């Protein structure tokens, strides 16, 4: 069986992370976690900031990496600045969004 | 009309590159000192920015990724950060200058001292970014900036000796007491302005804001090939006016009022009014371009949600960056620093940012994973390499020439 | 292990002599099927370069302006592909079973 060939550094590292569901931008792939002891050795997760994205959440690897944003907290800082600053300015958009 | 509106992104982008406050003064200054002998450099710059902006537009239309995504990806985190710092400083210094430029235009129109206009100008720029739709913003300021065409009309009305202007343009070398060093310094200033990095940041991010897809490849190209040549034309017209009016009598140009004077001389009060509105629109447009580019570059480097295609609260860090940059602009300008001089210092950072910005674009525009059938052809690649070489030479020579000539004196 | 820890490591041959540096990790999407119904990315080998550099810019492939590719390759020196079976990752280096002369140049294994 021949699968798609990729290079971890070229195709994964420093790529844009996108929420598969709504297209939101979720950060960059800062590093890739490999399990070299496993048989066969595989990619186990993508790392962005302090967050670990398990490989099972990777939905599509293209010019950006699409993931399903389940059980992750990738919006933490965006939410923080939204609550503490941006939301206090009139016209920042509906809360429902 | 609809077709005209579709190319306003290119026009607004080009205004920020060719006729922002720093360039308005530089163009006139160069015309007054060298005539049209540096006109060729503008032409070389127009071709270069067309070449690379076309690649950026194509990458956005085919792969959906803006320029700073490519820089982070191909240069990595560390070199990418260096590029971010250098290009961000260029953009921020230009933003500061533009806010000052808007205030100066308002001073010329009202007689009220420009420092009083500074906070108002910065607030107005923020308000437009906060509330106005991207497509509306690019249309209004792109089209209003075109009022600077009045310089071309003024040049024609001044009735110059066209043969002599042509003779100057085809003899690209210093005259009189000017040296090759000052000539080279201004050549790099004009070339660097034509290819200033925030143009490709703004243009490619604008393409994403406009949701360009494969079907918009033609729109992207039209934006490039209408916008930038128009920008270059405005630049040459201003240079020409100064060459006709100031060069023969040996007047040096260093203020915005001197830049606008030829329009008043040629076309009277109406000409002056149009030119003032044009300068206001061009500097305001360039302020929008640079403020947004500050947000785009940082947002794209870190992968944050950015863009005006979502509500401000959904891109909170992107908007916060721009608020901070505008607040900083007010603080810097209130120290009474000359806004026009501010852009001169940006040359130092531009020297570092230029090659690092354009290399990843050339690489990705060639990558079949990204571009498939739409990757660069051989002619584009040869030209791309020639310009990369030119940018490298310019970036190496910029700082030494600035020191030798004491900033072009 | 993190990719970042592997990239830029020294690569030694069986006798302990220097070969070069780890530049990239080749993956094939044919590993065990994950709960997302996608195959896992299996590590199949390493891209090793003679001179230290962290970025190949994607130029291990035959793409891009020839002049840029030539410049990048000149800086990198030789570029090899080492299959994972021949690799042992130690605490601070990577050891390859074969000697330098027996390594497979990446060119022969390149994908367009």
From TrEMBL, chain A:
Protein name: PRC-barrel domain protein
From TrEMBL, chain B:
A GO CC term assigned to this protein in UniProt: plasma membrane
GO molecular function, one term: manganese ion transmembrane transporter activity
Keywords for the protein's UniProt record, in alphabetical order: Membrane, Transmembrane, Transmembrane helix, Transport
Subcellular location: Membrane
Keyword Transmembrane helix among UniProt keywords: yes
Pfam family, one: Nramp
Record GO biological process: iron ion transmembrane transport
Subcellular location, principal: membrane
Transmembrane segments: 40-61, 81-106, 112-130, 137-156, 183-203, 224-251, 271-298, 318-337, 343-365, 385-404
Bilayer topology annotation: Multi-pass membrane protein
Protein name: Mn2+/Fe2+ NRAMP family transporter
Organism ancestry: Bacteria, Bacillati, Actinomycetota, Actinomycetes, Propionibacteriales
UniProtKB/TrEMBL annotation, chain C:
UniProt organism field: Kribbella antiqua
UniProt name for this protein: PRC-barrel domain protein
């Amino acid at each position: 069986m021949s699968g798609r060939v990729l290079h971890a550094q070229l195709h994964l590292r420093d790529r844009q992370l996108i929420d598969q569901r709504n297209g939101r931008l979720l950060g960059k792939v800062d590093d890739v976690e490999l399990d070299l002891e496993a048989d066969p050795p595989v990619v186990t997760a993508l790392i962005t900031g302090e967050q670990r994205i398990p490989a099972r959440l990777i939905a599509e690897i293209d010019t950006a990496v699409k993931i399903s944003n389940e059980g992750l907290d990738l919006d933490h800082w965006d939410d923080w600045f939204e609550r503490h600053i941006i939301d206090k300015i009139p016209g920042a958009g509906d809360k429902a969004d | 009309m609809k077709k005209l509106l579709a190319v306003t992104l290119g026009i607004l982008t080009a205004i920020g590159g060719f006729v922002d406050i720093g360039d308005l003064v530089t163009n006139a200054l160069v015309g007054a000192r060298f005539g049209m002998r540096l006109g060729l450099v503008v032409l070389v710059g127009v071709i270069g920015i067309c070449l690379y902006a076309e690649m950026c537009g194509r990458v956005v239309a085919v792969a959906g990724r803006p320029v700073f995504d490519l820089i982070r990806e191909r240069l990595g985190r560390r070199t990418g950060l260096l590029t971010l710092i250098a290009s961000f400083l260029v953009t921020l210094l230009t933003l500061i200058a533009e806010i000052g430029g808007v205030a100066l235009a308002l001073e010329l129109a009202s007689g009220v001292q420009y420092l009083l206009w500074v906070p108002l100008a910065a607030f107005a720029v923020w308000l437009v970014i906060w509330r106005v739709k991207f497509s509306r913003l690019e249309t209004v300021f792109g089209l209003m900036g075109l009022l600077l065409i009045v310089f071309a009309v003024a040049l024609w009305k001044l009735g110059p000796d066209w043969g002599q202007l042509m003779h100057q343009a085809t003899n690209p070398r210093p005259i009189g007491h000017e040296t090759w060093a000052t000539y080279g310094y201004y050549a790099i200033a004009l070339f660097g302005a034509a290819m200033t990095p925030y143009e490709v940041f703004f243009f490619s991010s604008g393409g994403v804001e406009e949701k360009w897809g494969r079907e918009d490849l033609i729109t992207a190209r039209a934006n490039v090939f209408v916008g930038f040549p128009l920008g270059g034309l405005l630049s040459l017209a201003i240079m020409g006016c100064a060459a006709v009016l100031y060069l023969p009598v040996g007047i040096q140009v260093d203020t915005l009022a001197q830049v606008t004077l030829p329009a008043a001389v040629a076309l009277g009060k109406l000409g002056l009014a149009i030119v003032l509105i044009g300068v206001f629109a061009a500097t305001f447009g360039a302020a929008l371009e640079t403020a947004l580019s500050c947000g785009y570059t940082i947002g794209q480097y870190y992968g944050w949600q950015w863009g005006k295609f979502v509500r401000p609260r959904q891109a909170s860090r992107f908007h916060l960056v721009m608020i901070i940059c505008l607040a900083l602009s007010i603080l810097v300008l209130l120290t009474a620093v000359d806004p026009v001089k501010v852009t001169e210092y940006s040359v130092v950072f531009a020297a570092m940012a230029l090659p690092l910005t354009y290399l990843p674009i050339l690489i990705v525009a060639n990558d079949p994973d990204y571009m498939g059938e739409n990757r660069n052809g051989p002619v584009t690649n040869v030209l791309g390499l020639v310009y990369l070489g030119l940018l490298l030479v310019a970036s190496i020579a910029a700082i030494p020439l600035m020191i030798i000539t004491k900033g072009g004196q | 292990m993190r990719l970042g820890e592997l990239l830029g490591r020294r690569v030694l041959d069986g006798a302990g002599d220097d070969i070069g540096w780890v530049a990239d990790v080749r993956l094939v999407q044919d590993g065990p099927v994950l709960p997302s119904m996608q195959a896992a990315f299996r590590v199949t080998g390493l891209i090793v370069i003679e001179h230290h550099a962290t970025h190949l810019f994607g130029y291990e492939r035959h793409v891009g302006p020839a002049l840029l590719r030539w410049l990048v390759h000149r800086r990198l020196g030789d570029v090899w592909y080492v299959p994972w079976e021949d690799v042992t990752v130690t605490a601070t280096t990577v050891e390859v079973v074969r000697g330098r002369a027996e390594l497979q140049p990446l060119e022969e294994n390149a994908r367009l």
